[in-house]
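Appendix B, Record 12. Input sequence as logged:
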Amino acid sequence: MKRIFVMALIAGLLFTSCSSIADEVYNDGCDKMNALKYKEAIEEFDLALKLAPDHKQSLINRGFCNSNLNKQAEAIRDFDRVIALDSQNSMAYYNRGRSYELLGDTVKAFDDYTSSIKADPKHASAYDNRGNIKENRQDYDGALTDYTMAVRYNSQDSFAYYNRGRLQYVMEDYQKAQSDLDTALSLSPSFEKAYGMRGLARWKLKTYKDALSDLNKAVALDPTDRKCYFYKARVEKDMGRIDEACADMRKAAELGDTFAQGEVKLLCK
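Logged structural output:
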């Protein structure tokens, strides 16, 4: 009996030692993952999992790395394993949903984001991603609710404010759209898409000078954004700046905007 107890104690110590080493290796993998060295990070997570096969966070992070390397099938296998070990793991559902969405399977992605939220009702990113799917399904009220939950639980997420502002523009609530885009830009001052979208909201509000300022900032940040050149030309036209409007419409056409190609013939006489 004593010998059995000693052997059990030794086995327990060995398990604890392996788990401890696995945690150290996992931490090394996290450092590489945070440095965007995904292949090197995967090697560390592989080693951690050899030492502790049920190390859930190593499985999640290895899946995350594989997803960012566009290896979605491998990623999904890791998230499946985590969910089999822990059916209430919000991050595993969220990341699996993200992989399914990248594969174009929005039905499975939607279900996983919903499961993620059930497991953690304050998971802001899951609300944001599910909101995107609802918006694409033209469930605008549902999407607006999800975006609102996203900013409630992560008030520092500029993308969630941008998404809600963009949706409110689509819903023709331009004042609220501008307000959300103001917040997005206060959080991320170099957010090109937010400048472009706020420019559109301000154009609809007929504050043309401010709209033009935003669109100028957008094209300065991304000179290849043909839509911003197109709408910049529309604003300039409404301001009576026909020569500038013509030049920007031509630029949009050169960048491949098919609507701009038709507008050039009407605007540039």
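DSSP finds 15 helices and no strands in the chain.
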